[in-house]
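Appendix B, example 12.
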Amino acid sequence: MKSIFMSILALFITIICLPILLIQGCDIHKPKIQKEPMVESDQVVRVYINETGEVKTLDLEEYVKGVIAGEMPAAFQMEALKAQAVAARTYAISRINAYGKDGHPSHKGAPLCDSVHCQVWLSKEKLRKLKAKNWMRNYFPKIEKAVEETKGFIMTYDNKPVKQPLFHSTSGGKTENSEDVFAAWVPYLRSVESPYEDRAPHLQDEQSIIASDFIKKIKSKYKDATISPSNIHSLKILERSEGGRVLKLKAGNKIVTGREVRELLGLRSANFKIAIEGENIKFITNGYGHGVGMSQWGANGMAERGHTFDEILKHYYLGVEISKMNP
């Protein structure tokens, strides 16, 4: 009886289990990446250089290396650098698709520029001038590896390249819905938790401004504003977004947005609290940047805890796939 049972068990393993293991076993620990080519693109990009006014034609992957160097600390974890590489490459493709050969209206002849208007891109020559003596030797190889290991991969949504792969430094614990910051509702730019930012240098900041200077700045934008030293204590936050940023702030007879206040005062974030201390107004900010899309410090925190680049991207951009471009 025992031999019959063992024969049946062996037959079951051979016919049922073994084929399943052969099919699935090799992919158990690999990122779930869409392997089939989803989009076509040129392998070169044209970049407008703001300092000189020239347009440079660059290999796409070399361009991505310069963006990572300009946008993310190279000391970050490899999987965070890879996530940034895919986001940067996706942004480049979205700009090429949107503006083509004519270029962006702000820099005709090139769909991309080298500043924060698009993505910061730094040439190797500039990096050698800006960075410490051994940075190119110690850190640039990490960037090269991150780009090489994600070569050709971009984010797609509904089988199309993601148009707005936005990112920022530090969310402050939770990212923002796109419509709460930039007006437009985007399905993959939803508010999500970003819990691993405790080591971010600007997680919390304080900035004080003299009340009279604050009043001047508000009146420079709104000439008929009634805010004055006599009613400065009436400053009141009326509404916050899901991610915590100020949506509406009452200043005299005006209702202004947190984004407007941030731009007027140069605050780290629109997620702030207000404290009036004598003639000063203190703004206590949480996070750094607009808060939409991927938090770079949050991505690094996820990478430190073992998350892969595709897991990081799918956490911050809901519903996206990681897809391979056509050569």
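Residues 2-24 form the longest helix (23 residues). Residues 128 and 136 are 7 Å apart (CA to CA).
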